[in-house]
């Protein structure tokens, strides 16, 4: 396998192969704190690493003393052996899953962010959180993750670094084993909000496009929860606002016949949010519809959102995220997908679909569910 990836791109979870990581920086944790600041200066790492090459059947994980030390061992690695050391066997970078040759190829074709800060954050580690990561990925067996997390400590570490576009953050999941801490997952989502906070506004029950009239009608729920609502057609530029959403049942906007995007924003207690987004014509967009299923028979999660895709020839990678359950799933090429499932909160959730992941990523669909 020939890797041609940079760890900066990987850290952003944008690499086509789904690789995510940080490297090339050294640093020492501050006294009494779980935060580490690292830089590319040539200092000696405080994390002991075994860099001696051994036969493949002798390679083994090298646990670290703390969650941040496990990430630091990765970012300060000076060769492929040290690079693989801090990864749990479920992780694709581990010595159990990545051959010596593949690891050396990946390591040698890596570039380095200039500054990295590591910080352990207070957050519960669940199976869904691990599955939401870019790696090991949503196809990992849930039972294997459950067994790994059972009866042991786990922690989330936020890795912040400076890129050409500004400050970026990636989150890792580490797990404590008998001899120390190993990296289990990376690229997990940010802390999700509660349904009451994230879904404070209730507005849209559906959108009907009327091609003969070049219009879109946004139908409201029976009891609107919002102080004001604005519907915008992005391409045509037509906008329809209302400061009394409770007194109307729908709003209409004119759409561009060749294709448009309808965006609905709502304001509650002075805070405005986009609450709905979908594209026209329906036959040409990636997302056909979204099904919310509470207590699904074929999934052990409390609820899921199933994003169904239209037939298309797109070859890029698509990402689906729920903002409340804080779950995500992504796959490529999207043209080969019928649907993607993602964990959802049974009391209500919001699904955001982005495409193409790894390029000029855009949010292409946003939809809310309330039971």
From TrEMBL:
Bias (Low complexity)? 36-54
Q: Which InterPro entries match?
A: TAT_signal
Q: What is the lineage of its organism?
A: Archaea, Methanobacteriati, Methanobacteriota, Stenosarchaea group, Halobacteria
Query: Which intervals of the chain are annotated as region Disordered?
Result: 20-67
State what protein this is by name. Uncharacterized protein
């Amino acid at each position: 396998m020939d890797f041609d990836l940079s760890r900066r791109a990987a850290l952003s979870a944008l690499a086509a192969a789904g690789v995510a990581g940080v490297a090339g920086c050294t640093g020492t944790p501050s006294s009494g704190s779980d935060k580490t600041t690292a830089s590319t200066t040539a200092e000696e790492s405080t994390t002991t690493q075994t860099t001696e090459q051994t036969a493949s059947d002798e390679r083994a994980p090298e646990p670290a003393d703390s969650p941040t030390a496990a990430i630091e061992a990765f970012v300060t690695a000076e060769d492929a052996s040290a690079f693989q050391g801090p990864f749990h066997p479920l992780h694709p970078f581990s010595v159990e899953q990545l051959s010596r040759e593949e690891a050396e190829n990946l390591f040698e074709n890596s570039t380095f962010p200039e500054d990295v800060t590591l910080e352990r954050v207070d957050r519960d580690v669940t199976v869904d959180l691990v599955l939401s990561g870019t790696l090991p990925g949503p196809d990992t067996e849930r039972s294997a993750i459950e067994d790994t997390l059972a009866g042991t400590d786990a922690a989330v570490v936020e890795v912040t670094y400076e890129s050409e576009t500004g400050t970026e953050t990636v989150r890792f999941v580490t797990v404590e084993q008998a001899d120390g801490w190993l990296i289990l997952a990376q690229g997990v989502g940010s802390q999700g909000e509660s349904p009451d906070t994230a879904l404070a506004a209730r507005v849209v029950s559906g959108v009907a496009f009327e091609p003969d009239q070049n219009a879109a009608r946004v139908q409201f729920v029976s009891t609107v929860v919002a102080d004001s609502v604005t519907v915008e057609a992005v391409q045509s530029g037509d906008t329809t606002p209302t400061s009394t959403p409770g007194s109307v049942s729908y709003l209409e906007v004119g759409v561009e016949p060749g294709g448009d995007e309808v965006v609905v924003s709502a304001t509650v207690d002075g805070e405005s949010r986009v609450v709905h987004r979908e594209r026209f014509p329906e036959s040409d967009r990636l997302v056909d519809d979204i099904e919310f299923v509470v207590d699904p028979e074929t999934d052990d999660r409390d609820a899921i959102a199933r994003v169904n895709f239209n037939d298309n020839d797109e070859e890029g990678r698509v990402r689906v995220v729920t903002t409340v359950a804080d779950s995500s799933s992504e796959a490529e090429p999207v043209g080969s997908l019928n649907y993607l499932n993602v964990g959802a909160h049974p009391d209500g959730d919001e699904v955001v679909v982005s495409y193409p992941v790894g390029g000029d990523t855009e949010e292409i669909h946003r939809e809310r569910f309330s039971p």
